[in-house]
Amino acid sequence: MGIVKDILYKVSNKRFLSIFKNQTIFPYYHIVSDNKVAHVDNLYQFKDCKQFSNDINVLTANYKTLDPKDIIENNRLKNNRFLISFDDGLQEIYTIIYPILKENNIKAIFFINPNFVDNNDGLYKHYISLIISHLRNNNFDEKVLQSIGQLFSFTYNTDEEFVKQLINIKFSEREKINNVLELLDINIKEYLKEYKPYITKGQIQEMINDGFYFGGHTMTHPPLNQLSHEDQKNEIVNSINWLKENFNINYSLFAFPFSDKLVSKKLLNELFEYDRNIKLFGNSGLKKDIDNRIIQRFSLENPNKQTERQIVTENLYKFYNNIIGKYNIKRK
Hints:
13 helices, 5-stranded parallel beta sheet, 10% strand
């Protein structure tokens, strides 16, 4: 959360939530599962089904649902609403999240990376998590760690420092991950075929038919700040166009991968030229961006934080940002 948010969480109280209901909020997640997930476990923590269902109960008890259609059609949004979204197109959005949302009559937006749909390829960060799980299971064999460190030209003093270095390799070095998979005798094609980490086209179509919405999340989930301007734009626009071409949708929704903090004003303006009704989703919390078509979200994914207090904390952090002059996002 960061030092300030950690402090605010400690002083927060779920009874304060009633004070902060006169607004629309946009919580987001990646995955919900009762089981360990090797390709995610080493990247972030996530909630189980009971915890996620509790989140739904908290949200519906304090806010009314917002239909994504109202955002797409530029309808005037009423206060006291919530809209949840999910990034990365993991299989659990279909097998776990979709049924829970249907049962509660809640519509949501799912942001996906087309290159991973149908499980022919996967996100490089997910491969890294899978590698780390393998290394943990083998007690971090020092000879293997040294070989991997040499491959990526990084040094480390502890196993956990090694893990941090591996997770943070640059996008341009992702092809070397295949060398690591080969070194560890991990057949990634077999893993994708057996575990099917990602959603399929057929599942996307079923969910669209049921009234759910999908948006782009780039083709390959790169940190955009590590790409050229043109490559950033292509990753974004191509992921939106893929959805339009494959599912005959007529709207443009997109969520920035990793972070939207370094997204340039030039890129945003070009996306608005591509479709003046596009809606872009960031993850900077309760902040005001330079254009109303940019919607900022906050994560409710941490299983160790109480949901009501998390929402209160986000609002307290909003007031803090107002005081220090960081509530309004500035773009260069």
